[in-house]
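Q&A log
Question type: sequence-to-structure
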Amino acid sequence: MSSLAKPRPRLLLVDDDPLIIDTLSSLLAEDFEIVKAGNRADAIALLRTSQQLAQLALIDLGLPPQRNYPDEGFALISELLALDPDCKIIVFSGRDEESYARQARTLGALEFLVKPVQLSTLRQALWHALQSRDKARAHHKDTALSRIIGESPAIAKTKTLLQGLAQSRFPVLIEGESGVGKEMVAQALHELSTAASKVPQSFIALNCAAISPGLIESTLFGHVRGAFTGAQSAQAGYFEEAGEGTLFLDEIGELPLELQPKLLRALENGEYQRVGETRSHRVRARILAATNRNLQREVQAGRFRADLFHRLSVLRVRIPPLRDTGNDRALLLEHYLQYYSAQMNTQPFRLSPEAMRSWLAYDFPGNVRELRNIVIRMLTRYAGQIVGEAALKEELESDQDTAPEEQISTTSTATLPSLKELPVGQPEISALEGGLSLPAILRQIERDYIAAALQKSRGNMSLAAKLLGINRSTLYNRIETLERNGASFGNNTEGPAPGGN
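Response status: OK
Response body:
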């Protein structure tokens, strides 16, 4: 059993009487982490600048500047639930009026207690509220939309749009910057689409940037035995494996131009052929695609077919970058703090008020992926501590994509070795009769070029990606794919960012 104490639930106390606040704080401090405020404005400001919301709230209705009226307390109930719909609120009032109790419950308060109240009764009410909250979260925590963290208008609009698109079978193009969570949105669409049928369906994902261009066609459509060197047996493609579920084509902008007509034919005619076969198969899966590129500009530049773009973008979802989602940065901080501190068996850190303001003001150019990585890194350094503004800024600056100007100007213009200069290993020989394994040779060449770029950039992933002419997320994806196939890059990489896209 862990020697670490279980984190205490956070309780917000709001009352204009300092004696009541101090007394309750002292009596409840053993079981709850107490947050105190004397009026509505201070309570909301305190939560907005904190890295954690309160699970419970115990509030008086008669608050300044109108102590003799319940208006401020009623307004506070609404604001707390707008900030966190899961917060459980107990009203603790000196006015024993049925109309007040009824209005408080109508606004969302769980219970109405009248002062004075026995400590045992108050404790029982608080624990009942906490259990009610935990049950509600357990019921909703694994739904598709609940995994998209955020309550800003931009995220709320996205969730509403996803619900509207769920039952359509038309293709959906998911657009957004790297790191905003496009695959999570695709999974949410898949789950919403299949929820009504109550029949589990496959979700098959292919990252078009992380697979060798020579293998994409057979991966998508499958192949018959002998279709190419190394095809020792027939194999189903992703279209077939997806069945009536969802086929998600991530980084669709990276799909080679020569393969785009075949994908277009599958989408327009609902048919495809395995490589080396003349018989057609029916497309049954719903197609979702995602990109961090501006595909309309790619069409204008001749790098993407206009007809395929229009076929993929019958329906479109634009995922907002983190800089446009306001205080969702605080919700994501709390989410990842709780998740990774539990995984790492450690106490979460806390941000000072000044650090929290810096956190909320930071743009997070790498979006949710960057935010998550910063939380993980800070947990390894500051577990159980209060992190100040200076320490936080060091962490934020260390996650910037770009190196100093001098380094970029000298390194980004460097050239990579020619193909014959690379130390390509002996090509793998197929154990079966059939000669050289082309996929293995291509993986080896790709591995050596990436290793050369990493060496020249001294492990800086952004500079290595510039040298290779690809974006950083594509480089991460290709490294992950190569490592899954046995390649090793030693200590040359800064480590691919897990998840998120």
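Response note: Confidence is low (pLDDT under 50) at residues 1-5, 401-413, 424-435, 494-501.
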